[in-house]
């Protein structure tokens, strides 16, 4: 197979297959999509979108109170925050360009549909991607992301999108930086999706002319996979969400078993250990750390009190979480308006998560749970140290 490199952001695999690398927030990328469809005259336009992301682009998708409550109950607050964080970073880049993230992908779909061309959505479902990324990330990686959210936003060096699109070495460096910052997330967000995109492209009828529109950061990876045609994982494997192992499922029960075991041991043996003191250590450690987490999220005083009261109890029952209760109270006492719920999906900076009431509910839920978990481990260590 002969390959033609037409420009740094366009790769012609063969006369029937052309790849166009874009910046999801660039005005020039929108124009490039229009130009390439007109010039290449494809039969099929394949875009780096999944069904849910496509739906969110073509409709004015809103978060409602029921949806927010469902996120709290199902323990999905960290995933929603991660997704919103990534979207906010993209949206921040697009402000100066006057484009919303994915504008060039939507333009590709609209033009293709207007001209009666086939449209293929070739990306993996965003929820699958985020869940796989979350599961692959080590604790230290999750902590680094949390720290980046809590830290003050610094004045960052201005990013030249045109320069990035024209220099694939810069893109490679940026992708490598992400992998160094979070190897687990990087492998899922970049390498796995490169493989997935390439395999979906190869499933399209090769007799038809195909224009593939993907983020420029995926251009090198997709090109490499198409050249080698040897993906390490099949589509089914890449769409699979790994279940927790028996060991992982058992870990949340270790602390309750340890606490009840210690109390039972002391009572049975009539030990001279002060049970009231041990109970106080357990209660204070759990309450303090959960409350601190809620305070960092700038939760309402009633949510902070709820976090402190719930944590010593929920830490003994892994089927419950202090953050659920604190988040629910935060939702009730500082209820987001319809406008704030809608704006949450359009936040443009990390600081906006604290000023938006819907974002604050999710932060209260996630950070209270984190504080409660740390408090339980500290309390358990204190109980063992008191023997």
Which terms would index this structure?
387 residues, alpha/beta, 2 domains, six-stranded mixed beta sheet, 19 helices, elongated, disordered N terminus
Unreliable parts? 1-7, 92-99
Largest sheet: 6 strands, mixed
Instruction: Summarize model confidence as the mean pLDDT.
Output: 79
Structural domains: how many: 2
Q: What share of residues are in beta strands?
A: 5-15%
Shape descriptor reads elongated
> What is the helical fraction, as a range of percent?
55-70%
The assembly state of the depicted protein chains is single chain
What does this structure look like?
The protein has helices at 27-40, 51-58, 65-73, 77-94, 103-114, 126-136, 139-150, 161-166, 168-181, 183-202, 219-228, 235-238, 246-269, 275-296, 301-314, 322-333, 338-344, 352-355, 357-385; strands at 4-7, 10-14, 17-22, 44-47, 118-121, 210-215. With 387 residues, it is of the alpha/beta class. Strand 2 and strand 3 (17-22) form a beta hairpin. The protein folds into two domains: 4-63 and 94-238, no CATH class; 246-385, no CATH class. It has a six-stranded mixed beta sheet, sandwiched between helices. The protein has 19 helices and six strands.
Helix and strand topology:
Layout: E1 4-7, E2 10-14, E3 17-22, H1 27-40, E4 44-47, H2 51-58, H3 65-73, H4 77-94, H5 103-114, E5 118-121, H6 126-136, H7 139-150, H8 161-166, H9 168-181, H10 183-202, E6 210-215, H11 219-228, H12 235-238, H13 246-269, H14 275-296, H15 301-314, H16 322-333, H17 338-344, H18 352-355, H19 357-385
Parallel strand pairs: 3-6, 4-5, 4-6
Antiparallel strand pairs: 1-2, 2-3
């Amino acid at each position: 197979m002969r390959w033609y490199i037409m420009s740094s952001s366009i790769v012609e695999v063969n006369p029937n297959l052309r790849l166009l690398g874009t910046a999801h927030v660039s005005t020039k990328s929108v124009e490039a999509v229009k130009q390439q469809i007109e010039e290449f005259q494809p039969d099929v336009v394949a875009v780096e979108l999944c069904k849910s992301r496509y739906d969110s682009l073509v409709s004015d998708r809103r978060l409602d109170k029921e949806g927010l409550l469902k996120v709290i109950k199902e323990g999905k607050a960290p995933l929603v925050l991660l997704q919103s964080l990534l979207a906010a970073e993209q949206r921040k880049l697009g402000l100066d360009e006057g484009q919303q993230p994915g504008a060039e992908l939507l333009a590709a779909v609209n033009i293709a549909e207007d001209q009666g061309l086939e449209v293929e959505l070739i990306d993996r479902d965003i929820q699958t991607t985020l869940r796989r990324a979350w599961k692959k990330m080590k604790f230290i990686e999750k902590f680094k992301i949390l720290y980046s959210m809590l830290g003050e936003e610094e004045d960052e060096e201005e990013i030249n999108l045109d320069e990035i699109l024209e220099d694939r070495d810069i893109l490679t460096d940026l992708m490598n930086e992400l992998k160094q910052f979070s190897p687990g997330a990087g492998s899922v967000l970049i390498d796995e999706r490169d493989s997935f995109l390439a395999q979906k492209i190869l499933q399209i009828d090769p007799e038809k002319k195909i224009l593939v529109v993907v983020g420029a950061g995926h251009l090198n990876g997709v090109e490499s996979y198409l050249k080698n045609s040897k993906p390490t994982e099949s589509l089914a494997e890449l769409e699979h969400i790994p279940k927790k192992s028996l060991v992982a499922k058992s870990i949340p029960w270790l602390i309750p078993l340890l606490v009840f075991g210690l109390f039972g041991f002391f009572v049975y043996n009539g030990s001279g250990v002060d049970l009231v003191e041990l109970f106080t250590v357990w209660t204070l450690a759990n309450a303090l750390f959960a409350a601190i987490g809620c305070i960092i999220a700038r939760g309402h005083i009633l949510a902070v009190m709820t976090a402190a009261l719930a944590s010593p109890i929920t830490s003994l029952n892994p089927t419950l979480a202090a953050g659920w209760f604190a988040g629910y109270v935060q939702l009730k006492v500082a209820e987001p308006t319809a406008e704030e719920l809608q704006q949450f999906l359009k936040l443009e900076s990390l600081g906006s998560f604290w000023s938006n009431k819907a974002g604050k509910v999710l932060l209260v839920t996630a950070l209270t749970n984190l504080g409660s978990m740390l408090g339980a481990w500290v309390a358990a260590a204190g109980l063992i140290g008191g023997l």
